[in-house]
Write a structure and sequence with these properties.
By secondary structure, the protein is mainly α. The protein has eleven helices and no strands.
């Protein structure tokens, strides 16, 4: 404990000396201290008789006065030196404090300028994000409108198919009823069974000999002419809606692709759902091509089957037209269901944007058919 106390005492002494040291460097203090010691030393020599005492004359009085006031002058110089040094040190402290305050104020000004600059950048980024969100919303709305057009076109195809399938099964014409069995457009019937319907039809004709009935042949020929004319009219409409060169029905994704880094900071949730929605739209457009292509092939096969110039009704031609009919119906039905799901998903994305730059709500789950593709 004594060692520790000694160490603390020494440390405190060093600290006190460090405080006094600047005063000892002042010239006035040094001169005053030198005079003080010199005259003090001289007085001590006189008092002890080391220097003989002078007789009480005028010289003695002068020497006595010098010793007295020289001692006081040294003391005054020391006091004055300490005072001036104290004033100087205080002035330096005030100056240092002022410099520190000035630097702090400047640093605060710099921080304020930086904060204002950052706020300006944030406001600019928010403005860019608002504009990007608005543009993406417009793009989604355009794609939604295009999907609705495809839906309307599909309704046209479906109505045309229903009308044609009813005409080729006119109840009053026995040959038509026999050649086009209702099972072929029953999608619940397995494809393996539907593939043998043409064979079943010709076996039935062989047994009934209906194809040799002249009256039924005349009714069939008249119906074939009417059906051929109807198919020609429908074919013109379908080809206009087909858009094989992709000039009329094109889903847009330029806004999404060009601003994806910005949108990643805006969209809350899984950004890949938006990416997948654009992939779904492209797949939807590809499937639309397949639907129109196979529907046109079905109409062409039916047109050739009822061609009044040929009237080539045989097992192969019937098998072809029945297969095309069933395939067209399957594609139109599946595509209609896909359109409903994709349109619902696109509406969910379109309504997921909050006003302004507010965070987007989590996108609704897209339809579960993303991996579905049509096979020719």
């Amino acid at each position: 404990m004594a060692i520790v106390h000694s160490v603390f005492v020494q440390a405190d002494g060093v600290t006190q000396f460090a405080k006094v040291a600047p005063y000892l460097q002042d010239p006035l203090v040094l001169i005053g201290f030198f005079l003080f010691l010199a005259f003090l030393f001289t007085r001590t020599l006189l008092k002890r008789g080391i220097i003989p005492t002078l007789p009480p004359t005028a010289g003695f009085k002068i020497l006595k006065t010098l010793l007295l006031y020289g001692f006081l002058i040294g003391f005054v110089l020391i006091f004055l030196g300490f005072s001036l040094k104290y004033v100087e040190l205080r002035a330096k402290e005030r100056q240092a404090t002022a410099e520190i305050n000035s630097r702090e104020k400047q640093a605060q000004i710099d921080r304020d300028i930086k904060a204002a600059h950052e706020k300006g950048q944030q406001d600019q980024e928010l403005a860019v994000q608002r504009n990007t969100v608005a543009l993406l919303k417009v793009e989604l709305q355009g794609n939604l409108a295009l999907a609705d057009e495809l839906r309307k076109n599909t309704i046209v195809f479906l109505n045309g198919f229903k009308s044609t399938s009813q005409v080729v099964r006119t109840p009053g014409i026995k040959l038509l009823v026999a050649l086009f069995p209702a099972e072929n457009i029953d999608l619940k019937l397995p494809d393996s069974e539907a593939a043998h319907l043409s064979d079943k039809v010709f076996e039935g004709l062989e047994q009934s000999q209906l194809h040799k009935d002249q009256l039924e042949l005349q009714k069939f020929t008249a119906a074939a002419n009417a059906i051929s004319t109807s198919i020609d009219l429908q074919m013109s409409t379908v080809q206009k809606l087909q858009d094989a060169d992709h000039k009329r029905y094109v889903f847009q994704s330029q806004i999404w692709q060009a601003n994806l880094p910005i949108l990643r900071n805006v969209i809350v949730g899984n950004v890949s759902r938006f990416e997948e929605s654009y992939a779904d739209l492209n797949r939807l457009r590809t499937n639309y091509d397949l639907v129109t292509q196979h529907y046109v092939e079905y109409l062409n096969a039916l047109r050739q089957f009822f061609d009044p110039q040929k009237h080539t009704v045989n097992r192969d031609s019937l098998h072809l037209v029945l297969a095309k009919e069933r395939n067209a119906l399957q594609l139109i039905t599946a595509f209609s269901e896909m359109l409903v799901r994709d349109t619902r998903a696109l509406k969910s994305l379109e309504t997921s944007f909050a006003p302004g730059i507010a965070a987007l709500s989590s996108p609704a789950a897209l339809s579960s058919h993303r991996d579905t593709t049509f096979k020719a």
